[in-house]
Amino acid sequence: MPALVLLGAQWGDEGKGKATDLLGGSVDYVVRYQGGNNAGHTVVVGDQKYALHLLPSGILSPGCVPVIGNGVVVDPSVLLSELSGLNERGVDTSGLLISGNAHLITPYHTEVDKVTERFLGKRKIGTTGRGIGPAYADKINRVGIRVQDLFDESILTQKVEAALDFKNQVLAKLYNRRAVRTEQIVEELLGYADALRGYVADTTLILNNAVDEGKVVLFEGGQGTLLDVDHGTYPFVTSSNPTAGGACTGSGVGPTRISRVIGILKAYTTRVGAGPFPTELLDADGEALREIGGERGVTTGRDRRCGWFDAVIARYATRVNGLTDFFLTKLDVLTGWERIPVCVGYEIDGERIDELPFSQSDFHHATPVYEYLPGWSEDITKAKSFSDLPKNAQGYVKAVEEMSGAPVSAIGVGPGRDETIQINSFL
Ligand code: GDP
Ligand code: IMO
Ligand code: MG
Question: Which residues does the record give as IMP binding sites (predicted)?
Answer without folding.
Answer: 13-16, 38-41, 128, 142, 223, 238, 302
